Structures are given as C-alpha cells and as structure tokens.
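Form 7-S
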Amino acid sequence: MLNHIVLIGRLVRDPELRYTSNGTPVANFTLAVERNYTNRDGETDVDYIKIVTWRKLAENVAHHLGKGRLVAVEGSLQIRKSKGKNDNRTYINPEVIANNVKFLDWPSDSKKNQSDSKKNESRSNMEQQDSKSMDDQDLSDDDFEVPF
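Output:
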C-alpha cells in the first residue's frame, strides 16, 4: 500500500509553532494549491490544505517560512474524524503529515530588502575598515604575488 503526496503551493499565513506536553515541536500551516484546470468561468480553483510538521522540520518551517512563501511539501495524507459539540455530526478533517518541506523561493522583497540593507551596511563598514588599514600600510607592487 502507498500513501504518498507531493504538493506545491503558497502558505496562506505564517506557520504556528507549538510544543506537545513532552516538548516535541509541531508546526501547522495551510497551503494554497492551484488545480491544474480552470472552471466554467475560466478561473483556476484553489484548494487549501492543512499541513503538519514535527520535530526539527517544524522548527525550521516556523523560523524560516511566512505567509506567501512558495514551498513543496512531501508527506502522507491523514484523515481525522471528529464529532461536533452541539450536534452528532461527524466532521472529516484531512491533513498532510509532512516528511519534507522544500523552500522554492526567497523571502518577500520587503523582508529581503531589509536584510540586504543590513548586509550592505555591515559590508560597507567592513570595506571602510579594510581601506583604512590598507591606507595605513605603504605597499608597493612588488609585495603582491600573482596566483597564476
């Protein structure tokens, strides 16, 4: 028997990281996955699929992913059934237990621009320090060896 599912989609919201009573990390998120065909109106339908990750994968997902990120999820389908509180209706709750989550894009431009500006700022500070130390030294062309 085989229970294997592969999905590619975008996160609907930021992952939610929780810990079980014995301290095991678990992260939940919802993935928006487009269907391969269009409906009568010419629009592509979207399915919203609940994803559950455990342990180190849960921590990685919670720390590095956010709303709108494109990911590939590999795992198995699990159907949980529950009874309603006010009625005797049975609810079916499908979810994917992820074994692997691959990040398929970079963080959004706003987050990336903030981190890039911090990197560029620290890089320019380092370059300024390097140029100051180079200015302090009196180097001639004979001091450098060509590596080839």
